[in-house]
Specification:
Layout lengths: L1 E5 L5 E6 L2 H4 L5 H14 L59 H17 L3 E4 L9 H11 L4 E4 L6 H7 L5 E4 L6 H6 L2 E5 H10 L2
Parallel strand pairs: 1-3, 3-6, 4-5, 4-6
Antiparallel strand pairs: 1-2
Helix pairs in contact: 2-3, 4-5
Length: about 210
Amino acid sequence: MKLDVTTLEGAKAGSVDLNEAIFGLEPRADLLARCVRWQLAKRQAGTHAVKNRSDIDRTTKKVYKQKGTGSARHGAASAPQFRGGGRAFGPQVRSHAHDLPKKVRALALKHALSSKAKDASLVVIDDVTLSEPKTKALVERFGKLGLGNALIIGGAEIETNFQRAARNIPNIDVLPVQGINVYDILRREKLVLTKSAVDALEARFK
């Protein structure tokens, strides 16, 4: 698969051959959904909690006598059915993370990349560098390229001026190539890869 390479100014900078085994697959929604669910579950805090019966500090005096009232037998006011009692089966602090095999994660990333290539939402750019960290100038360049909602993947490190200029632009995410993930790819309309990012991805899946 051949794709044109552009610059930040919108000029042509040659072309690049994309590996069909990475960018030419038929996207599978089930794989993408599994990986997104795994990512979102992993980052849940899981700090929600309630007080159960053992956490309630109330009198343990018998509510009323055992027999003769015609009511149920109760021994403590901390029972869940009483006002101010403990919560039955409420949430507790826990981890929501679950396992997903490495091969499935790798395959899901390939399918996410392929989905962007199939929808013509994949842009390859030669490099992301700026002479000075000016957000206004970068917004104008993104406007020429049609990047209003995009994920930009650079090389091993993002150039400082570009990172500073882009971090205040809404709907624009910038990540180094080692931070690429399925959820961030799918949540943005366009995926922008630098040539170094393409080389790193092809080396990763070689």
